[in-house]
Amino acid sequence: MTGSPPTQTNGTRSEPIVTGSPTTITVTWQPSIPAGESQRSATLTVADQRVGKVIADLNALPYRSGDGVTSCPADDGSAFRLQFDYPNGDRWTVTVEATGCRTVTAGGAWTHAMAFPELSPLLKDLSAIVPSSYRLSS
Questions:
Q1: Is 12 part of any domain?
Q2: DSSP code of residue 35
């Protein structure tokens, strides 16, 4: 099967992807294995303006519902992993794929959104925090 099944729809998000008030965010670039580059991370406090921008970018993505089944042949496995740490010790992990369907998953659940560069500055903003081999043209 190619493309998205008809059960998936775009819509308005009733719950934000990132809730509450995290104290820090760790952004990790996870390159594709054939790329030959190493994983890199940066940890930012909420005082850094880039954190607010990334949270706003994530929460502005349109909701994507369905069974999570998609076909993304241009996906090389590279992604950004975002770990939000909260004052009470809780952690929330969001994964943003840099290629293919550019799916965004939160808390290990099915796809919540898709971060196409034509529709959202999220991938560009993440690349500004942790330089990566990701290119907007890919």
A1: no
A2: G
Rounded to two decimals, what is the model's pTM?
0.79
The pLDDT value recorded for residue 27 is 93
Q: Is residue 137 part of a domain?
A: no
**According to the model, what pLDDT value does residue 82 have?**
94
Dihedral sign for Cα atoms in the order 106, 49, 42, 119:
positive
Average pLDDT over the chain, rounded to an integer? 78
Hey, what are 19's tokens?
A: 């809730």
137 closest CA partner among 114, 115, 118, 113: 118
In the chain, the number of structural domains is 1
Give the span between the Cα atoms of 7 and 31, in whole angstroms. Answer: 31
What residue type is assigned to position 54 of the chain?
V
Q: Check residue 13 and give its pLDDT.
A: 53
How far apart CA 122 and CA 26 sit, in angstroms, is: 15
Helix residue spans in 2-95 (DSSP H): 49-60
Residue 2 lies in a domain: no
Residue 58 lies inside a defined structural domain of this protein: yes
User: Shortest CA distance to 31 belongs to which of 113, 108, 127?
Assistant: 127
Could you list the residue range(s) of the whole structural domain that residue 54 is in? 17-129
